[in-house]
Amino acid sequence: MTGNTPQPPDDRPHDLVGIGIGPFNLSLAALAHGVPGGVAAAFYEQNPAFHWHPGLLIEGATLQVPFLADLVTLADPASPWTFLNYLKSRDRLYPFYFAERFHIQRAEYDAYCRWVSDHLPTLHFSHQVDAVRWNPEKNLFEVDYTQLDPDGEAEALGRAHTRNIVLGVGTEPYVPEPLKPLVEAPGVPVLHAADYLTHRDALLTAEHVTVIGSGQSGAEVFLDLLRHRPHGAERLHWLARTEAFAPMEYSKLGLEHFTPDYTRYFHALPENVRNDLVPRQGQLHKGIDADTVAAIHDELYRRTLHGGWPDAVLTPGVRVRTAGRVAATKVELHLEHTQQGSRSRLTTDAVVLATGYRERPLTRMLAGLDPYMRHDASERPRIDAEYRLVLDDSVTGSVYVQNAETHTHGVGAPDLGLAAWRSATILNSLTGKEPYPLPRRTAFTSFGLDRKEAPRIPAQTPPLTPLAQT
Questions:
Q1: In what order do the strands lie in the sheet with 41-44?
Q2: Residue 470's pLDDT band (cuts 50, 70, 90)
């Protein structure tokens, strides 16, 4: 049965409605599928099928986390939805064994997730959620949605009632203010790296290309362009605001910042301390994989073997002050070098913005719940240790969030390695039981003087009445 199979009408309230089907809600759906007694769940996604960053599935690009950070393994290695079981279903387990790969390619992770999404009956693609509200008379959330046809046009309206909601709407590409007018203008060759593969052929033939951004996406785009442009006529610029094209922190103890132990430690810190800490931790998640750094240097070096240097300029410490069009097809970037205090202009034929992503504001989706929501001093939603929005006591249901809680749970919020653990935490909280026993200790590092281990059973929640899955 596939996620697009029509479901029979059912007026019973759901235990859980998920909004958005990216890796995190897909993880939750997969683990919910294995809860004893069942969880009556439905997950809605406006896109017609699962795709994970399709514009960045560059050939050879790998995940920055090991394959064990799949949708379920770190919470339930016996689940039928593990990456290893996916390989087995494709008769690829022995080839993978001999390949000895701990980090799989992004395209393979995408294919694995699509395999899971094709088999879970609780997933509803081509369903756009329009509004969420609390109905105090029914003590239920109401979720209004529009069912879309294959062309993305409205086909039917619907409403679901549910005791709980989980938001997994993901992030959105970030475009710096000076470049927004150019990205939004038709025909101007300025695009976010999220759309790289869509425009790759045009970029490879452009006379000069500029890549902006020093993270993993910027490095992968630059490397792909470098490998496919002529020797001695590469005509590439790679610019970044950071002080160096530096590798991401990947030491074993450094990686312990992406454990449940650190997440619990971070959540317990005072709000002002958390606010100061997150901007200082960029090296934990914003740098470049060391292998990619080495591959770039190797490719540049290879192009010097017969004399001369490649026509590629790599300059960190630069910010774009303003940008504008020159004639009809070129872009002029006004640059400032922050250390030198100098300024210059760069004319280019195309710009790829590898400027990262930002959490989508929850207020867009949850306007109907705003009177019930509690906010911190910076007017952000308060989120408890079990990933629930802090709501007024009159709301008896829970709203969980996935990858929208960096301000309360730290740099691990978008990390795939914490997906299964967070999903299990949510299901333990949702059921009031412990369908997924979680480890009480996950790091050798004691991040504070008063080590706090996880309780065996999360916050008490009324147990769900067993219902058949919908």
A1: 123-124, 41-44, 16-19, 164-167, 398-401
A2: very low
Could you give the CA distance from residue 333 to residue 143 in angstroms, rounded to a whole number? 45
pTM over 0.85: yes
Three state DSSP letters for 444-463: CCCCCCCCCCCCCCCCCCCC
Q: Report how far residue 52's alpha carbon sits from residue 414's, in angstroms, rounded to the nearest whole number.
A: 14
> How many other C-beta atoms lie within 10 A of the C-beta of residue 250?
14
Measured CA to CA, the distance from residue 370 to residue 388 in angstroms comes to 15
Angle (deg, nearest 10), helices 23-32 and 106-117: 40
Residue 326 has pLDDT above 80, yes or no: yes
The label of the residue with tokens 């007018």 reads 181
Task: Please answer whether residues 428 and 436 qualify as being in contact, where contact means their C-beta atoms are separated by less than 8 angstroms.
Answer: yes
* Residue 169 CA: distances (Å) to CA of 122, 359, 368, 403: 17, 9, 17, 8
Pairing mode, if any, of strands 236-239 and 357-359?
A: unpaired
Query: How does pLDDT run across 92-146, given as a tens digit for each residue?
Result: 999 999 999 999 999 999 999 999 999 999 999 999 999 999 999 999 999 999 9
